Structures are given as structure tokens and as C-alpha cells.
Amino acid sequence: MSQTIVIDPVTRIEGHSKITIQLDDRGEVVDAQFHVTQFRGFERITQGRPVHEMPALMARICGICPVSHLIASAKAVDDIMAVEPTPTGADLRRVMNLGQIVQSNALSFFHLSSPDLLFGFDGDPAQRNILGVAAANPQLARDGIGLRKWGQQIIEWLGGKRIHPEGIVPGGVAFRLTEEVRDRILAGVPEALAATERAIAWYKSDMLRWEEEATTLGNFRSAFMALVDRQGNVDHYGGWIKVIDADGHALADPIDPKHFNDYIGEAVEPWSYLKSTFWKPMGYPDGIYRVGPLARLNVAEKTGTPRADEELEKFRWRVGRVASSSFHYHYARLIDTLHAIEKIELLLRGPEITGPHTRSTAGINRNEGIGVSEAPRGTLMHHYKVDDDGLVEWVNLVIATGHNNMAMNRAVLQVARHYVKGDRLEESMLNRVESVIRCYDPCLSCSTHALGQMAIKIDLLAPDGRVLSQLAR
Amino acid sequence: MTVTEGVVPGVLVLGVGNSLRADDGVGQAVVERLGGLLPPDAAQLRAVYQLTPELAADLADVALVVVVDAAAGVPAGDVVVSDLDAGASAGEPFSHSVDPAGLASLARVLYGASPRIVLVGIGPASLEPGEGLSPIVAAAVATAAERIAAIVREQ
Q1: Could you tell me the CA-to-CA distances from B61 to A175, A253, A332, B93 in Å, in that order?
Q2: Are A134 and B95 a contacting pair at CB < 8 A?
Q3: Which fold has domain B11-141?
Q4: A64 to chain B: nearest residue by CA?
Q5: Domain ranges of chain A
Q6: Where are the domains of chain B?
Q7: Does the reported pTM lie above 0.95?
Q8: Per-residue pLDDT tens for A113-172?
Q9: Between chains, do A163 and B1 touch, taking CB under 8 Å as contact?
Q10: Chain-chain contact of B102 with A131 (C-beta, under 8 angstroms)
């Protein structure tokens, strides 16, 4: 008799989802699906709005990465206005985006994933949270809190608010950076670097414990996609889309982000609100690829900053030039953070960063625009069409978590096949299935989810719907 | 969302809630009202959506923390004031938020800080999506702000 295991909801991720694991008559895993069960509808509800409102509206999609949506949206409107942001405006956008990379990466690694790494995947679930981390390794907890706070402060000082900030507008930014705020941010750089390097050292000293997990948590061949600059290095704000295969070979020449539609397709499955994007030349579902910190390090030649490049060299020595295991997202996320901090410092020490020219102005000059940037979780694309008055007629958002959707499903299936046995439902098995999702740090639009305590529930169902076994916490 | 900036005083008031969920925004409304009642250097006033672990570092700098929030189970418009029980056990934290006891625990363990924590709860009439407070809760904002101001002045 075939059976189904449902994990609902998945915990310690950004948003609502569940996992279904399908067993065959012998209790062996035959399929697994990662369902995103929430619906937002921003692409529809923004139709008819004046396009200059879009950045502020899009920032409301998410409470964790509003800056990413602000930036991709503002870039799409730049395109419609046929305008280039001023150099100072573009650099201030970069600083704000990198501040968000730091705080979001810190949330993912220290708050959500470090409990698994510290206490083990078989550890007591009651310990596997930030309070447990604080008790067992106060320095690690302080570093996580400090990094997240510093990243949030950058967003707040530049954008006015930590959550749903403002200030990024079509043509650049709507504020001028004062020397006092610049120096306040710079004062936090040494400790942010030290905290990140402490975390990297701790992770490296501990990672051999997780050899089995690195082998089984989403370890498969796939393509990778990220933005790179002219030198082929990491670029979180602009540049070109680069896609490589599992062996590191480029699948195409660097792609102008405005032409992403020629290469990226979107598929819809009936069991999820999350679209599955794919590399068009390979079709669906063969065109699977991954985005995010691991993809950024796999795709780029270097990060382009000295400390992060030093760690990148060690990373590649340990896990290979193209890391295939999704477990290495954790390690990559820390190096991504280190690079972001170094880059913030470089940008803030630029001579024009406090200059007065922060915004270009223009009107509606095109009826279509595309904006692409790197969000913490990967490449983010906003595509708008407007009428001659600048009213929005059509919107399409291609988000990082959508790029990773097929990879997450494949990863869940791999983990389930390794750890799930039909006649045994164990907490450690469930945590590993969830943890492979957390590697990708999926953001399922989390601005509405803070009501109540998430529980986890697993039902073992017969084909007729009868509950054969149940596990909950 | 800092209402007052500058020198950090010995008192931190955290107005917790979501102003797009009707009376859940009452904590933020009280903080805004307090801005007009207290001199700028009397307290650091902050409006936040939820209590996040990062706030633990801020607790290390102050002697008194007031957490004002909508309180389910309290009659609509009533204002309830109590000190956080030092022995209160923290609930299991959500992915990126903690309860007041959890925040106090983090501050104690990570920063050696044990400020007095006063909880001010206001009974909501509605927590449905929407802007603006219900009349009965809006009327309670001044009461809550005045009681907090009195606590701050006594500090």
C-alpha cells in the first residue's frame, strides 16, 4: 500500500510551506514535493498604479528583503524612463542592498541554521533556536545579533526604516548621505568583519562533522546562475547574467539582464503557488539551475575583495571549483557576507558617496522595463509594461526562490530517499528534510507570517486518506 | 523606526505591533504619543513590528525597558501594567522573534544585562487587516502613554 508523509508547515524558513513525501508499497520514497501554500498576487494588484509608485509598493512584498525588491523595481522603472542613475545614487543603492545582504544572511545562518550545526540534526528540538545557541555558544549568538543589527542599521540610516524602507527611487535615491552617517556605518565595519571571520573559522573547524549531510543534502549536478561584473566577479547590483553548467562551463555568453526572457522560462505546477523557472535551452524540467550565495561563488571568478577572496580560495580547495552540495550554501553565505562588508567599506570611502547628485530625473520614455539585481537568496527580476501615461498594465516577478524551486524539490527527494523509512518517523529525519530547504534560505514572502508559534506535523496517510501514523511537535 | 535619536538614555520604550492590523498597532501609537509627553532625553522610543533578538543588545544599555503591545485576552481598551516576572520562562522563539522573557534571557546571557522590564498591555477590539485603531482602543492610547510617562519619571 503506498503512503504519503506530509510535513506541514516547514519551520525556520521565511514563509509558509509544506513537504509531501510519497512512499510506495514497500515503504520506499518514490517522490517528494515542496509546496508553497501562500498566495500574494502582487503582480495583479499593482496593475493600474502609476509606475513611479512601484518601488514603494514592491518593498511591501517581503519584510526580510524589501531592499531587493526596491532595487529591482527601481531599476525596472529606470529602464522605462530610459535613465541611468547618477553614480552616487547607484553606489548608495549598492550600499543599502549590501546592508540587506548582511542582515539577511546573518538571519539565515545564525538564527535559522546554526542551531542545526551547533546541536546536530539529531539534537533536542527544544534547543535548536537562537536561545539555545546563546546558552551554548554566546559568542556565536552575539556575532549573529551584531551582524544583523549592523545590516539593519545601514538600511534604517539610509532608508528611514529597518523594515519596508524608502529612499530608493527611479533614477537613484531620494536622500543625500551625510558624512556623519557614513562615518557611523564605517565605525561598525571592523567588528562586522571580525564577527564574520569568527563564524567562518568556527564553521570550518566544525564542517567535517557534517560530511554525510554534505553528501546527501541536495548534492546533485545542476547549472548555476548569478550576476557578474565586467571582470567576471561577484556583483550584487548590476552587471551581466552568467550561467554555468555543473562543470563550470558557461552555457551562454554573459547575458544582458534586459534579455533574460530569452533564456529563462517559467513553469507552473498545480501543487504549489511558487513558479518553477528553468533554463530555456534545456527545457523544463531538465533546465534546472540554482541561484543564491552558492551560485554566486560558483559562477564568479572571484568576489573582488581581498578577505573574501582569501576565504573563497580555501572554500574551493575544500569543496571544489563548482560546489554541488546545497549544504555548502551555509559556508558560501558566510563568504558572501564577508564580501558584502568589505564592499560596503569600499563604497563608503569613495569620494563622491556624500555628493549632492543622487538622482536623475526623466519621464515615461518606454512602455516596458526590466530590472535585475542579486537578492540575498539569488537573482531577482522585475519586468513591467506601462501605458503612455505610465500606468502599470502588466507585471512579472521572477524571484530567487522560484529559480531554486526545482532544485529544492530535487534536494528534498534526495534527502527523503536517504533518511526516510516508511516504517519509522523520527524527529531527526524530519529535521534533515527541513534543513535541506533551509540551505536555500527560501523567502516565501514572510511579511504576514508572524502570528503564533509554528508547529510541525507529519501525517502518514493511506491512499484512501486514513491517517496511519502521526508525528507532531 | 527610531522616533528619537541621539544620546541613549537609561530608558527604552518599545511599541510593538503592526499598524496595518487595526488595534495591533496600538503599541506604536502609544510610542508616538509618548514623544509628545516626555522630554527628548528622557527615554529612547522605538516602534517595532515584533521583538527581535537584535533588541537584546539594546537592553544592555538601559536600566528600564517598557514593552507596550496589544494584549489578547484583556478587555478591549483596558490597560494592564505589570513587571516581567524575573523567573518567567521564555517561550520557544519563532524564526526571528522572541517574547519578552526570551529577550530578557538573551540580554542576560549574552550581555550580562538585567534591566527592569515593564509590560504594558492594551486589550484590542479588532486585529483584522486595516489601518486605524478602534475608538475604544484609540481612547486608551492616552491612558497608556500617561502611565508609561509616570513610570519613566519615577525611574
Answers
A1: 30, 54, 34, 23
A2: no
A3: Rossmann fold (3.40.50)
A4: B96
A5: 3-40+406-472
A6: 11-141
A7: no
A8: 899 899 988 888 788 888 889 999 999 999 999 999 999 999 999 988 766 777 899 999
A9: yes
A10: yes
